[in-house]
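Lab notebook, bench 4. We co-purified these components, and the gel suggests they stay together. Before we commit to crystallization screens, I want a quick structural picture of the whole thing.
Request: model the full complex, all chains together.
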Amino acid sequence: MATTAEASGPGRRPGPAAAAIALPILSVAALLGLWELAPRIGLVRPTSVPPFSDVIAEVVTVLGRPEFLDNLGSSAQRWAAGFALAILIGIPLGTLMGRWRPLYNLVDPLLVVGYPVPKAALILIFVLWWGAGNVSRIGIIIVGCLIPIVISSYHGAHGIEPRLLWSARGLGTGRLGSWFRVILPAALPQILSGLRLAIAISIFTLLGSELLIRGSGMGAFMFTALDNGQTLVVFAMSTIIAVIGFMLDFLYVRAVRRGLPWLEGEI
Amino acid sequence: MSGVRRAGAVLGWIVRGVYPFALIVGLWWLLAKLGTLGNAFVMPPPDRVFDRARALVEEGSLIGETLITLRRVLIAYALAIVAGIVVGTLIGRVRPVRQALRPIVSFLFPTPKVALYPAMLIVFGLGSTSKIAFGFSEALFPVLLATAAGTSQVEPRLVWSAAALGTSQRASLVKVVIPAALPGILTGARIGLVGAIIGVFLGEMIAGADGLGHLMAVAYRTLDTSDMYVAIITISVIGYLLDRTFLLARRRLLAWSPEEAA
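Here is the predicted assembly.
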């Protein structure tokens, strides 16, 4: 049994506990310390890179500004609407592709072609078609995160043990019934990892499209501060958005682990 | 029999390769004719965009901008591959490095890198460096995480055998660990390639004086709508070709691996 502990790689061996606690703290402290000191001792200009403590103070100020909350609200609403619609389109499409080969042959080549397209840039084309309103702004998020949702749903539904479906059919479950009760639950682990990827991509698309057409939203707010030369506000917004992006991912993984404790492996 | 089957496979391959483009152009042509999305100004038909692209090629500008963008993408990608594999291997194989870098990497990985674009613009300026930095930041983490995961899961017996045959620890990283982790690394590297393209293109749209992204942003401001289509289609074709090339190269590199057969 000793070999199995070895087989799981050098990471699993119990190391000195002190290093495990000290090293992560030291490295983060060193990074933040460098950010704090470099502008203060003149390694970089404070007007280019403000010290960490100034940025944190500015974060507090920005969080209290009413226009920040307005922009956060409009970004969040569009993101939620776009993400929800992408799920409603992507999961049925992907699972159907997984169970019905002709649909896969029809759709998959389009996904391959669409995969490397810079989706955020499409916002400018959408603006031509639908104006700079919510149709374009929600549409771009759907386009942005549809591919990972469809692909993961496809893989989830494609890999289902056929016996599960035969048993359900044999017990008299209809097509729609077995989609809800067999295919969807069996594909769920894959779909959930796809959604995690989709969250990251959709946030990128949201911010990227907002910075291109401005108007309102977090991306617009941050890049308008950049245009106005408000370096401190820019760094504060960068910090806030980075933390929001990290928290969304963190909370998503936590929620999935909590809600579906039987799920095995990585999300 | 096998000849017939092979001919069928080739035919299927051609159909699968041509069909999506035919469908997209056909749909585009139809929408332009019907005017569903608007008139020929906001939705120029394919032939008009094609004519415009040819005119830009004859002017010499389209090829020039394309090469500028391509160069930035390749530099950003190469840097991300090198940094991702080196740091990823260290994280995967050297415990103190992993302990030190884990909090930083696990914070930066899910963070939208676009949040850091303004800071990078301020630090790296408006020239090529900031665009390369955008592409690098988008491409790095998929490569780095795939490398860290792959190298940490290498079958220990492979490393032991190499050591027993007299390979030093450092040499076995390059000769054993990284090759064994290659399938995983390349999966991350494919995601990183698209990241590099998107980062560079968006960077050129935000700030700068050249490149396909700049062409698109200028066309938007001056309402040369056909040029916008030319720019986004060109970058998409570049992305498609690079992605295809990558997949071909991967098949070559992994010819020995059972995972390639799947």
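Chain A touches chain B through 60 residues (CB under 8 Å). Worth comparing against the SEC data before the next meeting. Chain A has eleven helices and no strands.
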